Amino acid sequence: MQDVAISTNELTKRFGDLVAVDHVSFDVMRGEIFGLLGPNGAGKTTLIRMLCTLSRPSEGTASVSGYDIKREDSRVREQIGLVSEKMIMYDRLTAEENLRLFGNLYDLPNDVLSQRIEELLDLVRMKKWADQQIGTFSTGMKQRINVIRALLHQPNILFLDEPTLGLDPQSTGEIREFIKNINIEHKTTIILTTHMMVEADMLCDRVGIIDYGKIAALDSPRNLKRIISGTDTTVVELHIPNLSTGITSQIKSLGCINNVIVGDDTHIKVQAKGDDAFDNIIDCVRRSGGKISSVKNLEPTLEDVFLHITGHEVREQTSEKVKAAGPGHGPRHGRRTKKRIR
Ligand SMILES: Nc1ncnc2c1ncn2[C@@H]1O[C@H](COP(=O)(O)OP(=O)(O)OP(=O)(O)O)[C@@H](O)[C@H]1O
Ligand SMILES: [Mg+2]
């Protein structure tokens, strides 16, 4: 189909007994910014690596720009650019030399490559640093070069695996603006993984929440938030000037609590379920000696949806742990899902 950029069909990757990506079927439409959210180890990078032909699926398949990732891998690679979790650049080379080195891998004629390098450096406001060694750059400057490196051959589809990880707010803002511009001006389809819910909310047309290798929800950020609005889940922010760990743990021990986020020394955000949740929380704080100076009922955010769907325990599962626990352990050995989500 013409307007589908990526289509996955039961795509699966196993590492030993661990099912890192578990029979995933979904489509990304041309021109979309598509977000992949998920806890650590959920399978986001593994999914991207398969779509970029860097890792072979154990089962299932996918097409990228109409090309099959197993049978037409070199065609797929012509269509895509990848900014991976790890920056691969040479510190001793200048920004321009690094870009030229990678540009040469795409067999671009020298004059075309020179022009692209100049335009892209200009686009990320790095032209005046072109002749400086990458090793002297800040993380934000390096990441700007790293991102444009993936665009030298003008790919139709750009994969960005945590592009703003470790960047300060200024660099984060610039990279986000750049992503949006590339999408609008060049109609580039973008697949983005991030742990920043605000980023996904701001940039993405649709978001897939991946958990234990499966797509747990997929929709626009606005519709995803309705998942919470449509339930009896309450999100409240309390200002408690004498907030203590004792009060926090009393709140956490209430049966209705989904999630508690401590904002600063005096603010706490609580996500809870049930008609009496609001009253129970207030009673609990008072019983524990907390003095409430204000309470706000909040609109659900993408982070609330994320926690609602994935829970809030820290994920530590690895293939070794699964092996140690024996076959059949953990949700990753779950049933196949036949559902296609578009
Ligand atoms: N080459 C590998 N060999 C064995 N296990 C692997 C390999 N690559 C990934 N895994 C495992 O597969 C699971 C998914 O990993 P993946 O890197 O895709 O997660 P992720 O969603 O990208 O996590 P993060 O948010 O931390 O980047 C993890 O349990 C990881 O330990
Ligand atoms: Mg990852």
Annotate the secondary structure layout.
Blueprint: E1 4-15, E2 18-29, E3 33-37, H1 44-51, E4 59-64, E5 67-68, H2 73-79, E6 80-83, H3 95-105, H4 110-123, H5 139-149, E7 157-161, H6 169-186, E8 189-193, H7 197-203, E9 206-211, E10 214-219, H8 221-229, E11 233-239, H9 245-252, E12 257-262, E13 267-273, H10 277-287, E14 294-297, H11 302-310, H12 319-325
Parallel strand pairs: 3-8, 3-9, 6-7, 7-8
Antiparallel strand pairs: 1-2, 1-4, 4-5, 9-10, 11-13, 11-14, 12-13
Helix pairs in contact: 3-4, 3-5, 8-11
The protein binds adenosine-5'-triphosphate (ATP) and magnesium ion.
The site of adenosine-5'-triphosphate has 14 residues, from strand 2 and helix 1.
Keyword list:
binds adenosine-5'-triphosphate; Alpha-Beta Plaits; binds magnesium ion; six-stranded mixed β-sheet; 2 domains; Rossmann fold; 14 strands; 12 helices; disordered C terminus; four-stranded antiparallel β-sheet; 342 residues; alpha/beta
Kindly describe this structure.
The protein has 342 residues and is of the alpha/beta class. It has 2 domains: 4-219, 3-Layer(aba) Sandwich (Rossmann fold); 230-300, Alpha-Beta Plaits (2-Layer Sandwich). It contains 12 helices and 14 strands. It has helices at 44-51, 73-79, 95-105, 110-123, 139-149, 169-186, 197-203, 221-229, 245-252, 277-287, 302-310, 319-325; strands at residues 4-15, 18-29, 33-37, 59-64, 67-68, 80-83, 157-161, 189-193, 206-211, 214-219, 233-239, 257-262, 267-273, 294-297. The strands form 3 sheets. The protein has a 6-stranded mixed sheet, sandwiched between helices. It has a 4-stranded antiparallel sheet with strand order 2-1-4-5. A hairpin with a 2-residue loop joins strand 4 (59-64) and strand 5 (67-68). The longest helix has 18 residues, at 169-186. The two termini are 13 Å apart. 37% of the residues are buried. Mean pLDDT is 88; it is low at 319-342. It binds adenosine-5'-triphosphate and magnesium ion (MG). The site of adenosine-5'-triphosphate has 14 residues, from strand 2 and helix 1.
